[in-house]
Design goal:
heterodimer; A: alpha/beta; Rossmann fold; six-stranded mixed sheet; four-stranded antiparallel sheet; 11 helices; 10 strands; 38% helix; B: mainly alpha; 2% strand; binds adenosine-5'-triphosphate; binds magnesium ion
Chain lengths: 245, 330
């Protein structure tokens, strides 16, 4: 078996939830190949964030399996997945507000402190705004800056897989463009990306493949292009405006 | 800058006290000394009391910050520290060590005890998803259990350490302080500075702060949160034991000394802002000063009550505590 074709992430039939006896994910599957940019869209409450937390190990999986580069990591805690090369940017509270920008980045590379200088220099290049704010508390940054810091924190370890939960949420159109550009740039450098997005059309436009999630199950799967023009997906998830274009 | 905000309540308090001189002829000992001199003396006593409370309270505060546990048994860690040092130092069954190695051993013992209760009790309970209220009840039970174990082993009679028991005060103008008390105060301050440096400048300390502010994000950054919590338990146990030795040294060792201090520790950490280590230090200092200065006017038996009254008054003005941050909205 050639390593090239082993998916970076393979989650199969995942069942997970928060409250005892209530499953939010009811048999959900997701796959990310090497270097792929994969989008997940779906209505509010569909379980998109839950899916990311479950594959990452922040939420206990009740059924199904999670494989990273072929290795079974089902039920392993998140900090071990970071060691295996996964980065994660949560939807909310994605920086440490009481820590400075520098301390946030240091926490990003907590496992390999010696590499801090090299990696933070690389991050300053990717996100110039951070370079001038080293000593500022993350809590005092604007929403857009905070999103940049959150991504930088997750990229400090040079992950092979980046999990992004709604990176453009709450940002102005200009900042959204900026975020999507960065995501494409990161992906272009060879990092596989799994991205949940509220901005479904933008997401499908830049994604190689997409999943539509509904009520904890996969509703549709396909290339971004195909989903973008699928009548049912348009009607249910993209809104009729999409058809006009 | 934070300083002015911290100093304000202390300053206000001092002003009120100076503006209202007490009735004449209260204390027997202090009769004949001017009010200013007595105020100065009680301030010094208050600082000494405050920094010792702070040494014990920082660990309590860190535990609340990282795992939201209200550790009702924290006072017993303080007592056990003092009692263990007493065993090594004085007890007929013990080796009769000098107090300094005995104190060092008590701190190590406190650290091990902290590690043991985390690994043996709290971690399994956390893993089972036990709720915070239930955990709180467990700490009450643990507190009762440990207190009575100490009562059985140590006995109900108060005792002192073998060294540094009776000393003459050094006089510095109007104030007097024994070399022992001065040393304990300076050591306490040094320990508090050490904790601050640990939290602020080291990788582990930054991780403790990261876990306190967002546990999931810390985990997502590759931090082994359970290990950080273990470190906090070890630190908390060691500081409690050290504070116990200090308190036993300047006051007296009793089987329920930690339990009596617990109320003041809680007052200190709530006053300073729950979960903030620096808040715990500042809050404890204020509580210690209030408790001592109140004895200028009021019976010593009521000194804890005054400390708690100040807590209530300050919380009415600043609900988030002196160093606490208001709840984020948005
Ligand atoms: N911490 C939690 N405790 C209990 N239930 C939760 C928790 N987080 C989410 N849920 C529930 O799980 C379901 C899925 O939530 P999830 O956050 O995964 O949705 P989502 O698809 O990410 O939605 P959104 O687009 O709004 O971010 C919702 O019904 C939500 O109420
Ligand atoms: Mg979500």
């Amino acid at each position: 078996m050639s390593a090239d074709h082993t998916p970076v992430l393979a989650g199969d039939d995942i069942v997970a939830g928060y409250l005892p006896g209530v499953d939010v994910l009811r048999g959900c599957s997701v796959r990310v190949g090497p270097g792929e940019l994969v989008g997940v869209i779906g209505p509010n409450g569909a379980g998109k964030s839950t899916l990311i937390k479950a594959v990452f190990g922040l939420l206990r999986v009740r059924g199904g399996t999670v494989r990273l580069l072929g290795e079974d990591v089902t039920g392993r805690p998140a900090h071990e997945q970071v060691r295996r090369g996964v980065g994660y940017v949560p939807q909310l509270q994605n920086v440490f507000p009481t820590l400075t920008v520098e301390e946030n980045l240091r926490m990003g590379i907590y496992l390999r402190p010696k590499e801090y200088a090299r990696r933070s220099a690389a991050m300053a290049e990717l996100f110039p705004v951070l370079a001038t704010r080293r000593k500022q508390k993350a809590g005092a940054m604007s929403g857009g800056e905070r999103q940049m810091l959150a991504m930088a924190r997750a990229l400090m370890t040079e992950p092979r897989l980046l999990l992004l939960d709604e990176p453009s949420a709450g940002l102005s159109p200009v900042h959204q463009d900026h975020v999507f550009d960065r995501v494409k740039e990161i992906n272009g450098a060879g990092v596989a990306v799994l991205m949940v997005e509220q901005n479904a059309r933008r997401c499908l436009q830049i994604c190689d493949r997409g999943y539509v999630l509904d009520q904890g199950r996969n509703a549709y799967t396909g290339t971004g292009e195909r989903l973008l023009h699928d009548e049912k997906v348009i009607e249910l998830y993209l809104g009729t405006l999409a058809r006009v274009r | 800058m934070r300083c002015p905000r911290v100093l304000l309540p202390v300053l206000a308090l001092t002003l009120v006290l100076v503006a209202a001189p007490p009735a004449q002829g209260q204390g027997e000992v202090s009769r004949g000394r001017g009010f200013g001199a007595r105020l100065l003396q009680s301030l010094v006593d208050g600082v000494q009391f405050g920094v010792i409370i702070a040494v014990t309270a920082v660990g309590l505060s860190l535990l609340f910050g990282t795992i939201h546990l209200i550790n009702f048994a924290h006072g017993e860690f303080v007592t056990i520290g003092a009692a263990f040092a007493f065993f090594l130092n004085v007890s007929a069954a013990g080796p009769g060590w000098h107090l300094i190695p005995a104190a060092a051993a008590a701190v190590v013992f406190g650290a091990l005890l902290g590690a043991a209760v985390d690994r043996g009790l709290w971690r399994p309970l956390r893993a089972r998803g036990t709720g915070l209220i239930n955990l709180f009840i467990v700490t009450i039970g643990l507190s009762l259990l440990l207190r009575h174990v100490v009562l059985v082993l140590f006995g109900a009679r108060p005792a002192s350490f073998a060294q540094y028991d009776i000393q003459n005060a050094i006089r510095l103008g109007a104030i007097g302080i024994t070399p022992r008390d001065l040393t304990v105060t300076l050591l306490s301050v040094a320990v508090l500075v050490g904790v601050a440096v640990l939290l602020q400048r080291t990788r582990t300390g930054t991780a403790v702060r990261a876990v306190s502010v967002n546990r999931d994000l810390a985990e997502a950054s590759g931090i082994d949160v359970q290990r950080v919590v273990l470190v906090v338990w070890i630190l908390s146990g060691a500081l409690a034991a050290l504070g116990g030795v200090f308190y036993g040294l300047v006051e007296i060792i009793t089987w329920d000394m930690g339990f009596k201090l617990l109320l003041l520790m809680f007052a200190g950490i709530i006053l300073g802002g729950l979960g903030s280590a620096y808040g715990a230090m500042v809050g404890s200092l204020v509580i210690g000063i209030v408790a001592q200065v109140s004895t200028l006017w009021f019976p010593v038996d009521l000194q804890y009550a005054w400390a708690l009254l100040v807590l209530i008054v300050i919380l009415l003005v600043r609900p988030e505590g002196i160093l606490g941050r208001p709840e984020r909205t948005g």
